[in-house]
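Morning F.,

Quick status update on the modeling queue. The single chain you submitted on Monday has been processed. Sequence for confirmation:
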Amino acid sequence: MSERAVEWITASCAGDERQPTDLVLASIDRWRVWGYRLALKITGCPDAAADAVQEALIRAHRSRRSLRSVEAADGWFKKTLVRAALDQRARESRVVPEETAVSDPDLGASLQVRLTLRKLKPEQRALLALALGAGYSYAEIAYLLDVPEGTVASRLHAAKSAFRKKWEEAQ
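Structure tokens below.
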């Protein structure tokens, strides 16, 4: 984290509302870049991911005084982002086409994985995105979702089983 971002977060935690615009923008840009990638893995849709990041930034700004330390800033924002992405995913009401003609076998397999993921519940998709897509540990996922590690393990197992079932049905 840059010195300027630390300066902004520290002052923001202390309630200082007069932060220079460039400090605020530096932190926002930093979170926006990696936040979009994580939100995209959860939502599966570029527009929904962008909306989730925007919503997370708004929520983070509104609750910035709840941040206890600069060191916790990234985890604090990730937690806010995951919740915003889950909310965005739950609001989606897109109809997933059952079959799509694709000539490239690699592209077809990738598309089939995405279509199968879209058939899962938002929570299951988020767990798979966090564990398999983003590579988070059970402990990190438990922190992000505010649930015990054992719950993460059982829900992740259920998500993998649901994916396997949907995948086999589609074949």
